Amino acid sequence: MRFDSLIIGGGLAGLVCGIRLAEAGLRCAIVSRGQSALHFSSGSLDLLAELPDGTPVDFPLKVLDTLKQQAPEHPYSLMGTDNVRRYATESEALLARCNIMLTGSYQQNHLRITPLGTQRATWLSPVEIPVAPLPWQRITVVGIAGFLDFQPELVAGSLAENNINVKTAELTLPALDTLRNNPSEFRAANIARVLDKPEQQLLLIDELKTLAQHTDALFLPACLGVDDSQSWQNISHQLPCPVCLLPTLPPSVLGMRLYHQLRRRFQQLNGIMMPGDAVVRTETHKQNISAIFTRNHAEVPLRANHYVLASGSFFSNGLEAKFSGIREPIFGLDIRAPALREEWCHEDFFSPQPYLQAGVAVDKYFQPTIGGQRIENLYAIGSVLAGFDPLQQGCGAGVSMTGALHVAQRILESQGAAHESA
Ligand SMILES: Cc1cc2nc3c(=O)[nH]c(=O)nc-3n(C[C@H](O)[C@H](O)[C@H](O)COP(=O)(O)OP(=O)(O)OC[C@H]3O[C@@H](n4cnc5c(N)ncnc54)[C@H](O)[C@@H]3O)c2cc1C
Predict the structure, then answer these.
(1) Per-residue pLDDT tens for 39-69?
(2) Closest residue CA from atom 16 of ligand 1
(3) Could you tell me the sign of the dihedral formed by the alpha carbons of 245, 246, 249, 250, in that order?
(4) At what angle do helices 230-237 and 198-211 cross, to 10 degrees?
(5) Which of 94, 125, 211, 408 is the most buried (most CB within 10 A)?
(6) Which residue's alpha carbon is nearest to atom 52 within ligand 1?
């Protein structure tokens, strides 16, 4: 099988890169083993919320020079300020082309309300998520009877600290009884699959109408809208006050929806998705990858002009920590990581953990090396990269998306150059 580009990993980075390449007419395939970080994420996309020295960031693009001084190997520092600006803008346009409805802008972070009722700086949030400062005096936080992955009292406690009059309430929704009887099945995604059915929405609206009478806004767990925000819009239109959704513990409906919307766009552009398949072996010829082999395709080689590694961090097994060291298991790429094992972790659990900055070392074009030698047709993007801490710096989605577009641009330029010289 032959493609223009082959991408390993169908998380945020791989999908965005694939969409951009497919939009430009390249024949592109994504091999992806399993669920990605999106399935566990808040659904909000972070660009840069904090500098490595702990300084909070309001205007991400204005601090990139300082970031470069503090973290010269950060993917943004390698890419350069102009490229971060360019690809942050393009990311927003690409998400809009996928019909993903988000609030926010790369110009300035906003504060989203978290599942704990606290505030966290981020770049883009699903339109359903409430954003500070909240314009309401009275809020009712509504749980679902028996659903443990969202605790209205926790949310209410934090919101009340901001002088808001907060009440809690509970939906009974008998339609959920079958799920409710099996606690391991009573999860946000399964609840959403029931509540997304039009007949169930009517029952939900009936229960919410009673609660909506003496409040300015209703906050619900995000158990609606696995495919798109249509259910939320239907419900919102029929209630006298705004309805907001808060992310739950994983699986996250808002993150899953983002995944489905990106994947749909990629496939509409004739991108080929190979879910549930894993790259198990690769073949190299004269400093170029000549083929990859996957679990499902066995001895049938998958070949392309360009290969993009988007296999994620430790969470997705894109990186592995062994007694002998941290390694990238597919190509055996050169890694940047603390030299000594005892330096991987900080003894204070809540401090930034050094191992999170470990990953594949790349140059300014996001090209990795093996044994110090660059592989001419291989790129690495997303959380497999070294040099940043998505948790402390709040930059995970931004690194994934801007890096994906940076690499896609490089591939498109080299395809163009190849066509011209042909
Ligand atoms: C639990 C969690 C929650 C997060 N929440 C947020 C958030 O709310 N906002 C935010 O901005 N950032 C968040 N992040 C940061 C997140 O890492 C990035 O935002 C981004 O989603 C990472 O995307 P990725 O494509 O690089 O990697 P991933 O999403 O990890 O995707 C990698 C994919 O590669 C596949 N893969 C791995 N090995 C192989 C192989 N051999 N063959 C084929 N496929 C393979 C995996 O199965 C996976 O599907 C979160 C991270 C984690 C771990």
Answers:
(1) 999 999 999 999 999 999 999 999 999 999 9
(2) 396
(3) positive
(4) 40
(5) 408
(6) 37
Residue 419 has pLDDT above 60, yes or no: no
For residue 12 and ligand 1, the question of a CB distance below 6 A is answered with yes
Q: In the chain, what percentage of residues exceed pLDDT 90?
A: 90
Strand positions, DSSP E, 72-194: 102-103, 110-113, 119-122, 125-126, 131-132, 138-144, 165-171
Condensed to tens digits (0 to 9), the pLDDT of residues 375-410 reads 999 999 999 999 999 999 999 999 999 999 999 999
Strand partners of residue 108: 105
Q: What pLDDT score does 35 carry?
A: 93
Q: Which of 57-71, 80-94, 231-245, 341-355 has the lowest mean pLDDT?
A: 341-355
pLDDT (0 to 100) of residue 416: 75
Mutual angle of helices 81-97 and 12-23, in 10-degree steps: 80
Q: Is the pLDDT assigned to residue 368 strictly greater than 60?
A: yes
Asked if residues 312 and 11 have their Cβ atoms less than 8 Å apart, the reply is yes
Cβ of 310 less than 6 Å from ligand 1: yes
8 A C-beta contact, residue 353 and residue 346 = yes
**Domains with residue ranges and CATH for the chain:** 2-39+71-81+272-421 (3.50.50.60), 130-246 (3.40.50)
Distance (angstroms) between ligand 1 centre and the Cα of 9 equals: 9
Taking the C-alpha atoms of residue 126 and residue 129, their distance in angstroms, rounded to an integer, is 6
Looking at residue 366, its amino acid is F
